[in-house]
Every structure is written in structure tokens, then in C-alpha cells.
Design brief:
The chain has a domain at 15-130: 3-Layer(aba) Sandwich (Aminopeptidase). Helix content is 28%, strand content 28%. It is built from 6 helices and 7 strands; from the N terminus they run βαααβββαβαββα. It has a 7-stranded mixed β-sheet, sandwiched between helices. Strand 3 and strand 4 form a beta hairpin. The longest helix is centred in the middle third of the chain and has 16 residues, at 112-127. The protein binds coenzyme A (COA). Coenzyme A binds at residues 36, 39-40, 99-102, 108-114, 141-144, 146-147, 150.
Length: 206
């Protein structure tokens, strides 16, 4: 599986790579950051020992889930600045969901998140041949909501009072983009092998 490529459009240059074991300390740091956890995960933060994390990380690299792709994001100076994922990849239904975390706060607000999102969308629609890509945002995550909406995702609904943090409930917003909405006006999404090799729908004539 080829990692996403920089889209070459305006913004900083980035490079994607697979998860690398030599970067385990950086991943451990981001994984044990309560603020990042609150922004990108609904799983309540629990401090994890390095030993437990190492086992999990090694397993992830050695036995990746076929429905899940994790990537490291590097800046133009080859500094590891974040991670991105494609999850729930269905080769039958041709849908998946995506997320981006710029783990290094110094890099927030400089266009890296947007560039990563554009590259991820290109990867999902043009390489994986997806028909539908979804994203979710917690109501307090203004940066992510703005990024997702600015990239052309359509709001499909709100899961009201979905999260409970510190004695208060928060909504989750659900977004999706269809292949027909991707790069609207730019170029038609390419059909990939995922579409050509798709098994017939249940009940379809042979
Ligand atoms: C959300 C995140 C990926 C955005 O990446 P970023 O590099 O900081 O954002 P960018 O500089 O590319 O900006 C993207 C858009 O968000 C807007 N934005 C950035 N920070 C913002 C903030 N704090 N509040 C409101 N909008 C903000 C930018 O103005 C831009 O919108 P525009 O193109 O309309 O001007 C990044 O802040 C991050 O990793 N946060 C922690 C983890 C997280 O929340 N992940 C998302 C859920 S998986």
C-alpha cells in the first residue's frame, strides 16, 4: 500500500510514510497527551506505560488491520509532525473514515492539517477507489470542524450529547464526502481496481 502523496497544491510541503518503530517515542508522547486525546478520541484518557504502548505499537506495525491505514506526516525538513489514518475501509461498500492529528503544537494553524487532509482525500478517492469518505468532529474542536467543512465535506447530522467530559455533555458532528463531490469541478475521480474488482451486489443479476 502506497502512502498518500503531497497534492502539490498551495500550502506547506508534506510527506507521508508508514509507521516506523524508530519513532516510537514520538508516538508515545502524542498518545499520552490528554489534550490531543480529548480532541481526537472519544476513549477517555488513561495514562499508558511505555511497555504497554510498545507492545501495542509493535503489533500494529507487524500485523496491520487490512481495514485500517496509519501514516506518519513529515514536514519539508523531514520532521515528524503528526499522524493520519484511514479507518473502516470497506472494499465492498467503498466507504471509509479519516482523521488527522498534527501532534506538534508548534505546527498548528500553518496549513499542515489542510494539506494532509487534501492528500488523504486524494488517496481515498483516487488510490483506494472509495465512493464515500466520512469524518467526525467534536463540537469543541473548532480547528477540525473548519478544516473538514472547508474541504467540502457535507454535514450529515449531529449526535447530540454524544460525549461526557467533566460533568458536561458535548455533541459530535458527522460529515461525509461522496466521490461525486470530491474535487468538484476539478477532475473526475479515477476508477480504481477496488471498484472494478467489487463483487456483485446481493441479488444482482449474474
Ligand atoms: C485539527 C488540526 C488537524 C488542524 O490542523 P492545522 O494544521 O492546525 O490546521 P490548518 O492550519 O491546516 O487550518 C485548517 C483550517 O482550520 C482553521 N483553523 C486552524 N486552527 C483553528 C482554530 N484554532 N480555530 C478555528 N479555526 C482554525 C484554519 O483557519 C483553516 O481554515 P481556512 O482554510 O478556512 O482558513 C490540528 O489542529 C490538530 O491536529 N489538532 C489536534 C488533533 C485533532 O483535533 N485532530 C482532528 C480529529 S481526528
Amino acid at each position: 500500500m502506497e502512502p498518500p502523496q503531497d497534492t502539490g497544491k498551495a500550502g506547506p510541503r508534506i510527506r507521508f510514510d508508514r509507521l516506523r518503530i524508530e519513532n516510537i517515542y514520538t508516538h508515545f508522547k502524542w498518545n499520552n497527551d490528554p489534550e490531543l486525546n480529548r480532541l481526537d478520541s472519544e476513549v477517555p484518557y488513561v495514562e499508558e506505560s511505555f511497555g504497554t504502548f510498545k507492545k501495542r505499537f509493535e503489533r500494529l506495525i507487524a500485523h496491520p488491520d487490512p481495514g485500517y491505514q496509519d501514516f506518519e506526516i513529515y514536514d519539508e525538513e523531514n520532521t515528524l509532525i503528526g499522524v493520519a489514518y484511514v479507518a473502516g475501509i470497506s472494499g465492498h461498500h467503498l466507504h471509509c473514515s479519516i482523521g488527522v492529528t498534527i501532534g506538534e503544537r508548534d505546527y498548528w494553524g500553518q496549513g499542515y492539517g489542510k494539506k494532509a487532509m487534501q492528500a488523504l482525500l486524494k488517496h481515498c478517492f483516487e488510490s483506494l477507489g472509495m465512493h464515500r469518505v466520512t469524518a467526525e468532529a467534536f463540537e469543541y474542536n473548532d480547528a477540525w470542524k473548519r478544516l473538514v467543512e472547508g474541504c467540502g465535506f457535507v454535514t450529515e447530522g449531529t449526535d447530540r450529547d454524544y460525549l461526557f467530559w467533566d460533568g458536561k455533555f458535548f455533541d459530535r458532528v458527522r460529515y461525509a464526502m461522496l466521490a461525486s463531490e470530491y474535487g468538484r469541478g476539478d477532475r473526475a475521480p479515477k476508477r480504481s481496481r477496488a471498484i472494478e474488482n467489487r463483487p456483485p451486489a446481493p441479488g444482482a443479476a449474474a
